[in-house]
Amino acid sequence: MNGNTTFRHQNVALLGIAEAVAPVEVTSDELDGELGDVLQELGLPTGLFQRVAGVEARRQWDTPDGFITGSADAGRTALEKAGIEREQIGLMINGSVSRKSMEPSVAVSVHNELGLGTHAMNFDITNACLGFVNGMTMAATMIDSGQIEYALVVAAEETSQLRKNTVKHLHRDGITRAEYLEEFASLTLGSGAAAAVLGPADRHPEGHRIKGGVTRAATWNHELCVGGWDGMYTDSRALMENGIGLVVDAWGEAAQDGWDWRDMTSYVTHQVSSSHTNALLKAMSLPADRVPTTFPTLGNVGPAALPITLAREAETLSKGDRVLTVGVGSGLNAALTEIEW
């Protein structure tokens, strides 16, 4: 069944993409120091973040609302790279998981911080680590429809409070190895921000054409990763196996609809860990030298992870290169999108 799970954009280009780096580094060695007594009590070694997840460090903002200013900073840089004025933006979507309160949306704060016009609609799309990718698809569809001309998509994560709460929770009396491992993934998360500007391809031959792709859902896995800022509990193995299975299914479905992604210049994936990346490479027979990674120094930056990696990869790409973005969000949902550079 194809339905609306495969899609093709007619006249949309990525005009600019940028990241904003959170200023404070938290190394895995530092976290091992904070958890030393817990590891000793459970008979676990230090260095698990590096050996199991491949995460050497992650970053955080220096203020509680740093993710708001980070989104705005990334947005300004993306607009500058695109050569688009803020008055031209007709839509701004925020795809972050992080938020200060239930209401209002995070989008209104970023919209205000950027000084976007009153004509620019704005809202959040929250879908775990797939929010930014979903935001790009929504914006591209609205550009294709003629409703807007230019869109700005942002996402920023703030994970320091979750990290502190998790470390505190792991020090509780009677904790078991299994319970420790359920919260292990929480400590691989990092902070950062990304933004992308989209516009009509026929007006911007210098832009990077967003061709389309496929989405797929496996929501019977919605209990594999559940969390809030007080804590997050993950069945990491099941989440990895089912997430990769979903991507493989989506790839196969896209091939039936005419997409051929067997020889892309670059495969920009969601950034989780070394074990996740290695399993994905094996399952999809992808060449490791075409799959850039940022998780070793940034950790998993949620929905900002993929666009941050794409922003860095963009510095190496040339006109005519083909990029496949591979996004996955707990729940589970997946989206694969082709971009022609």
Detailed description of the structure:
- By secondary structure, this protein is of the alpha+beta class.
- It has 12 helices and 14 strands.
- The chain has helices spanning 28-34, 36-42, 48-53, 66-82, 106-114, 131-145, 160-170, 177-184, 236-256, 274-284, 295-298, 305-313, and strands at residues 6-8, 12-20, 24-27, 57-60, 89-94, 121-124, 150-157, 192-200, 208-217, 225-228, 231-234, 266-269, 322-329, 333-340.
- The strands form 3 sheets. Strands 1, 2, 5, 6, 7, 8, 9, 12, 13 and 14 form a 10-stranded mixed sheet that branches. A two-stranded antiparallel sheet has the order 3-4. The chain has a two-stranded antiparallel ribbon with strand order 10-11.
- α4 (66-82) packs across α5 (106-114) and α9 packs parallel to α10 (274-284).
- The two termini are 30 Å apart.
- Summarize model confidence as the mean pLDDT: 96
* Gap from first CA to last CA: 30 Å
Net shape: globular
Order of helices and strands: EEEHHHEHEHEHEHHEEEEHEHHHEE
Hey, roughly how much beta strand do the residues contain? Answer: 15-25%
Q: Total strand count, please? A: 14
Give the C-alpha Rg: 19 Å
Oligomeric status of the shown chains? single chain
Largest sheet: 10 strands, mixed
Structural class of the secondary elements?
alpha+beta
The low-confidence runs, each spanning 5 or more residues with pLDDT under 50, are none
Helix content bin: 25-40%
Number of DSSP helical runs? 12
Quick overview:
The protein has 341 residues and is of the alpha+beta class. It is built from twelve helices and 14 strands. The longest helix has 21 residues, at 236-256.
